[in-house]
Description:
Elements: E1 11-22, E2 25-36, E3 40-44, H1 51-58, E4 65-71, E5 74-75, H2 81-87, E6 89-92, H3 104-109, H4 121-127, H5 129-133, H6 144-157, E7 162-166, H7 174-189, E8 193-198, H8 201-207, E9 210-215, E10 218-224, H9 228-239
Parallel strand pairs: 3-8, 3-9, 6-7, 7-8
Antiparallel strand pairs: 1-2, 1-4, 4-5, 9-10
Adenosine-5'-triphosphate (ATP) binds next to strand 2 and helix 1.
Amino acid sequence: MPDRGTPAPRPLLEVEDLHAYYGESHVLHGMNFTVPEGEVVTLLGRNGAGKTTTMRAIMGMLTSRKGSIRYDGVETAGLPSNKVARLGIALCPEERGIFAGLNVRENLELPPVVKPGGLTLKEVYELFPRLLERRDSQGTKLSGGEQQMLAIARILRTGAKLLLLDEPTEGLAPVIVQQIGALVRTLKRKGFTIVLVEQNFHFASTVADRHYVVEHGRVIDMMLNEDIGASRDKIKSYLGI
Ligand SMILES: Nc1ncnc2c1ncn2[C@@H]1O[C@H](COP(=O)(O)OP(=O)(O)OP(=O)(O)O)[C@@H](O)[C@H]1O
Protein backbone atom coordinates (compact mmCIF):
# COMPACT_ATOMS: atom_id res chain seq x y z
CA MET A 1 0.00 0.00 0.00
CA PRO A 2 1.59 3.32 -0.96
CA ASP A 3 2.23 5.60 2.00
CA ARG A 4 2.48 9.32 1.41
CA GLY A 5 5.03 9.62 4.23
CA THR A 6 7.61 7.43 2.46
CA PRO A 7 9.02 7.79 -1.03
CA ALA A 8 7.11 5.86 -3.74
CA PRO A 9 8.73 2.58 -4.84
CA ARG A 10 10.72 2.80 -8.02
CA PRO A 11 8.71 2.40 -11.21
CA LEU A 12 9.07 -1.05 -12.78
CA LEU A 13 6.99 -0.15 -15.83
CA GLU A 14 6.67 3.30 -17.39
CA VAL A 15 4.31 3.81 -20.31
CA GLU A 16 4.61 7.17 -21.99
CA ASP A 17 2.59 8.61 -24.85
CA LEU A 18 1.75 5.14 -26.17
CA HIS A 19 -0.20 5.01 -29.42
CA ALA A 20 -1.40 1.81 -31.09
CA TYR A 21 -3.23 1.00 -34.28
CA TYR A 22 -5.15 -1.90 -35.78
CA GLY A 23 -4.67 -1.20 -39.49
CA GLU A 24 -6.13 2.26 -40.09
CA SER A 25 -7.83 2.29 -36.72
CA HIS A 26 -6.05 4.42 -34.10
CA VAL A 27 -6.93 2.76 -30.77
CA LEU A 28 -4.49 4.06 -28.13
CA HIS A 29 -4.17 7.85 -28.13
CA GLY A 30 -1.24 8.55 -25.86
CA MET A 31 -1.47 6.24 -22.83
CA ASN A 32 0.56 7.44 -19.84
CA PHE A 33 0.94 5.48 -16.63
CA THR A 34 3.51 4.09 -14.23
CA VAL A 35 3.55 0.82 -12.33
CA PRO A 36 5.63 0.95 -9.13
CA GLU A 37 7.57 -2.19 -8.30
CA GLY A 38 5.66 -4.57 -6.04
CA GLU A 39 2.27 -2.95 -6.55
CA VAL A 40 -0.97 -4.31 -7.94
CA VAL A 41 -2.26 -1.76 -10.43
CA THR A 42 -5.54 -1.96 -12.31
CA LEU A 43 -6.60 -0.58 -15.65
CA LEU A 44 -10.30 0.11 -15.29
CA GLY A 45 -12.62 1.21 -18.05
CA ARG A 46 -15.57 0.41 -20.20
CA ASN A 47 -15.62 -2.13 -23.03
CA GLY A 48 -13.49 -0.99 -25.92
CA ALA A 49 -11.57 1.64 -23.91
CA GLY A 50 -8.23 0.11 -24.94
CA LYS A 51 -7.20 -1.92 -21.88
CA THR A 52 -6.47 -5.20 -23.66
CA THR A 53 -4.71 -3.34 -26.46
CA THR A 54 -2.47 -1.69 -23.86
CA MET A 55 -1.53 -5.10 -22.41
CA ARG A 56 -0.82 -6.46 -25.87
CA ALA A 57 1.29 -3.43 -26.74
CA ILE A 58 3.36 -3.83 -23.53
CA MET A 59 3.87 -7.49 -24.42
CA GLY A 60 5.16 -6.57 -27.88
CA MET A 61 2.27 -8.27 -29.65
CA LEU A 62 1.27 -5.22 -31.70
CA THR A 63 3.63 -4.15 -34.41
CA SER A 64 1.86 -0.88 -35.04
CA ARG A 65 2.63 1.20 -31.98
CA LYS A 66 4.62 4.28 -31.03
CA GLY A 67 5.67 5.92 -27.81
CA SER A 68 7.75 4.61 -24.98
CA ILE A 69 7.42 1.53 -22.78
CA ARG A 70 10.23 1.13 -20.26
CA TYR A 71 10.57 -2.01 -18.18
CA ASP A 72 13.11 -1.80 -15.38
CA GLY A 73 14.63 1.17 -17.19
CA VAL A 74 14.94 -0.69 -20.54
CA GLU A 75 13.08 0.64 -23.58
CA THR A 76 10.96 -2.20 -24.95
CA ALA A 77 8.65 -0.43 -27.40
CA GLY A 78 10.55 -1.72 -30.44
CA LEU A 79 11.00 -5.30 -29.22
CA PRO A 80 9.13 -8.42 -30.41
CA SER A 81 7.17 -10.37 -27.80
CA ASN A 82 9.75 -13.12 -27.30
CA LYS A 83 12.35 -10.52 -26.31
CA VAL A 84 9.86 -8.73 -24.04
CA ALA A 85 9.10 -12.07 -22.37
CA ARG A 86 12.80 -12.69 -21.79
CA LEU A 87 13.05 -9.42 -19.87
CA GLY A 88 10.54 -10.83 -17.38
CA ILE A 89 7.04 -9.80 -18.48
CA ALA A 90 4.22 -12.31 -19.00
CA LEU A 91 0.64 -11.91 -20.17
CA CYS A 92 -2.28 -14.06 -19.08
CA PRO A 93 -4.81 -13.33 -21.83
CA GLU A 94 -8.55 -12.98 -21.34
CA GLU A 95 -9.17 -16.12 -23.41
CA ARG A 96 -6.71 -18.00 -21.15
CA GLY A 97 -5.05 -20.00 -23.94
CA ILE A 98 -5.23 -23.42 -22.29
CA PHE A 99 -4.36 -26.28 -24.64
CA ALA A 100 -7.60 -28.22 -24.59
CA GLY A 101 -6.08 -31.51 -25.73
CA LEU A 102 -3.36 -31.51 -23.09
CA ASN A 103 -3.79 -32.30 -19.43
CA VAL A 104 -2.98 -29.91 -16.58
CA ARG A 105 0.57 -31.21 -16.07
CA GLU A 106 1.33 -31.03 -19.80
CA ASN A 107 -0.03 -27.48 -19.96
CA LEU A 108 2.26 -26.57 -17.07
CA GLU A 109 5.28 -28.19 -18.71
CA LEU A 110 4.92 -26.21 -21.92
CA PRO A 111 5.93 -22.66 -21.07
CA PRO A 112 9.57 -21.90 -21.69
CA VAL A 113 11.51 -20.65 -18.69
CA VAL A 114 12.66 -17.21 -19.82
CA LYS A 115 14.33 -16.14 -16.60
CA PRO A 116 15.68 -17.97 -13.56
CA GLY A 117 13.23 -18.00 -10.66
CA GLY A 118 10.20 -19.54 -12.37
CA LEU A 119 8.07 -21.74 -10.13
CA THR A 120 8.78 -25.48 -10.25
CA LEU A 121 5.86 -27.87 -10.72
CA LYS A 122 6.04 -28.65 -6.99
CA GLU A 123 5.80 -24.96 -6.11
CA VAL A 124 2.89 -24.52 -8.53
CA TYR A 125 1.01 -27.40 -6.91
CA GLU A 126 1.68 -25.95 -3.43
CA LEU A 127 0.16 -22.66 -4.54
CA PHE A 128 -2.70 -24.34 -6.45
CA PRO A 129 -3.66 -27.58 -4.66
CA ARG A 130 -6.64 -27.91 -6.99
CA LEU A 131 -4.29 -28.20 -9.98
CA LEU A 132 -2.50 -31.08 -8.26
CA GLU A 133 -5.82 -32.88 -7.82
CA ARG A 134 -6.65 -32.23 -11.46
CA ARG A 135 -3.17 -32.81 -12.91
CA ASP A 136 -4.28 -35.65 -15.21
CA SER A 137 -7.45 -33.91 -16.44
CA GLN A 138 -7.60 -32.49 -19.93
CA GLY A 139 -7.90 -28.74 -20.43
CA THR A 140 -11.44 -29.15 -21.78
CA LYS A 141 -12.59 -30.90 -18.61
CA LEU A 142 -11.62 -28.05 -16.28
CA SER A 143 -14.09 -25.57 -14.82
CA GLY A 144 -13.70 -21.87 -15.69
CA GLY A 145 -12.02 -21.21 -12.35
CA GLU A 146 -9.60 -24.11 -12.76
CA GLN A 147 -8.74 -22.90 -16.25
CA GLN A 148 -8.02 -19.42 -14.94
CA MET A 149 -5.80 -20.84 -12.17
CA LEU A 150 -3.96 -22.96 -14.75
CA ALA A 151 -3.49 -19.96 -17.04
CA ILE A 152 -1.98 -17.93 -14.19
CA ALA A 153 0.09 -20.89 -12.97
CA ARG A 154 1.55 -21.25 -16.45
CA ILE A 155 2.91 -17.71 -16.54
CA LEU A 156 4.42 -18.20 -13.07
CA ARG A 157 6.50 -21.03 -14.53
CA THR A 158 8.30 -18.64 -16.87
CA GLY A 159 10.18 -16.64 -14.24
CA ALA A 160 8.44 -13.37 -15.16
CA LYS A 161 8.31 -10.69 -12.46
CA LEU A 162 5.71 -8.43 -14.07
CA LEU A 163 2.40 -10.21 -14.58
CA LEU A 164 -0.24 -8.78 -16.90
CA LEU A 165 -3.61 -10.35 -16.06
CA ASP A 166 -6.42 -9.58 -18.47
CA GLU A 167 -9.83 -9.88 -16.78
CA PRO A 168 -8.99 -12.91 -14.64
CA THR A 169 -12.42 -12.86 -12.95
CA GLU A 170 -14.53 -12.70 -16.09
CA GLY A 171 -17.43 -15.14 -16.06
CA LEU A 172 -16.44 -16.73 -12.73
CA ALA A 173 -18.69 -17.39 -9.74
CA PRO A 174 -18.24 -15.12 -6.70
CA VAL A 175 -16.55 -17.81 -4.62
CA ILE A 176 -13.96 -18.37 -7.37
CA VAL A 177 -13.48 -14.61 -7.74
CA GLN A 178 -12.58 -14.57 -4.04
CA GLN A 179 -10.01 -17.31 -4.62
CA ILE A 180 -8.47 -15.32 -7.47
CA GLY A 181 -8.34 -12.33 -5.11
CA ALA A 182 -6.51 -14.37 -2.47
CA LEU A 183 -4.10 -15.57 -5.15
CA VAL A 184 -3.36 -12.03 -6.36
CA ARG A 185 -2.63 -10.94 -2.78
CA THR A 186 -0.31 -13.95 -2.31
CA LEU A 187 1.55 -13.14 -5.52
CA LYS A 188 1.99 -9.55 -4.37
CA ARG A 189 3.40 -10.80 -1.05
CA LYS A 190 5.84 -12.96 -2.99
CA GLY A 191 7.12 -9.81 -4.70
CA PHE A 192 5.42 -9.93 -8.10
CA THR A 193 4.27 -6.71 -9.71
CA ILE A 194 0.84 -7.05 -11.30
CA VAL A 195 -1.16 -5.11 -13.86
CA LEU A 196 -4.76 -6.17 -13.85
CA VAL A 197 -7.41 -5.33 -16.42
CA GLU A 198 -10.77 -5.38 -14.69
CA GLN A 199 -14.38 -4.53 -15.26
CA ASN A 200 -15.29 -5.81 -11.81
CA PHE A 201 -14.53 -2.75 -9.75
CA HIS A 202 -15.50 -4.35 -6.47
CA PHE A 203 -12.92 -7.09 -7.05
CA ALA A 204 -10.31 -4.55 -8.17
CA SER A 205 -10.75 -2.59 -4.94
CA THR A 206 -10.00 -5.71 -2.86
CA VAL A 207 -6.60 -6.37 -4.44
CA ALA A 208 -5.17 -3.17 -5.93
CA ASP A 209 -2.90 -0.41 -4.67
CA ARG A 210 -3.87 2.03 -7.41
CA HIS A 211 -6.28 2.31 -10.31
CA TYR A 212 -5.87 3.96 -13.68
CA VAL A 213 -9.08 4.80 -15.49
CA VAL A 214 -8.88 4.29 -19.26
CA GLU A 215 -11.22 6.01 -21.68
CA HIS A 216 -10.89 6.26 -25.47
CA GLY A 217 -7.31 5.00 -25.43
CA ARG A 218 -6.04 7.36 -22.72
CA VAL A 219 -5.60 7.32 -18.98
CA ILE A 220 -7.98 9.97 -17.71
CA ASP A 221 -7.61 9.52 -13.95
CA MET A 222 -5.58 7.76 -11.26
CA MET A 223 -6.75 6.87 -7.80
CA LEU A 224 -4.99 5.27 -4.88
CA ASN A 225 -7.04 2.41 -3.52
CA GLU A 226 -6.82 3.87 -0.03
CA ASP A 227 -8.76 6.91 -1.29
CA ILE A 228 -11.34 4.88 -3.13
CA GLY A 229 -14.16 5.45 -0.65
CA ALA A 230 -14.33 9.13 -1.55
CA SER A 231 -14.13 8.39 -5.29
CA ARG A 232 -16.88 5.78 -5.53
CA ASP A 233 -19.39 8.00 -7.37
CA LYS A 234 -16.74 9.22 -9.78
CA ILE A 235 -15.75 5.63 -10.58
CA LYS A 236 -19.34 4.56 -11.07
CA SER A 237 -19.80 7.31 -13.62
CA TYR A 238 -16.52 6.40 -15.40
CA LEU A 239 -17.54 2.76 -15.64
CA GLY A 240 -21.24 3.36 -16.23
CA ILE A 241 -22.26 1.14 -13.31
N1 LIG B 1 -7.94 -7.11 -33.57
C1 LIG B 1 -8.58 -5.92 -33.65
N2 LIG B 1 -8.77 -5.31 -34.85
C2 LIG B 1 -9.40 -4.11 -34.96
N3 LIG B 1 -9.87 -3.43 -33.90
C3 LIG B 1 -9.73 -3.98 -32.68
C4 LIG B 1 -9.08 -5.25 -32.49
N4 LIG B 1 -9.07 -5.53 -31.16
C5 LIG B 1 -9.69 -4.49 -30.57
N5 LIG B 1 -10.09 -3.57 -31.46
C6 LIG B 1 -10.76 -2.29 -31.18
O1 LIG B 1 -9.88 -1.52 -30.37
C7 LIG B 1 -10.60 -0.81 -29.37
C8 LIG B 1 -10.01 -1.15 -28.01
O2 LIG B 1 -10.24 -2.53 -27.74
P1 LIG B 1 -9.69 -3.25 -26.44
O3 LIG B 1 -10.00 -4.72 -26.58
O4 LIG B 1 -8.30 -2.86 -26.19
O5 LIG B 1 -10.61 -2.64 -25.31
P2 LIG B 1 -10.82 -3.07 -23.82
O6 LIG B 1 -10.79 -1.82 -23.03
O7 LIG B 1 -9.88 -4.13 -23.46
O8 LIG B 1 -12.29 -3.63 -23.81
P3 LIG B 1 -12.83 -5.11 -23.64
O9 LIG B 1 -13.06 -5.27 -22.21
O10 LIG B 1 -14.07 -5.08 -24.46
O11 LIG B 1 -11.79 -6.05 -24.19
C9 LIG B 1 -12.07 -1.21 -29.54
O12 LIG B 1 -12.69 -0.20 -30.28
C10 LIG B 1 -12.01 -2.49 -30.31
O13 LIG B 1 -13.14 -2.64 -31.10
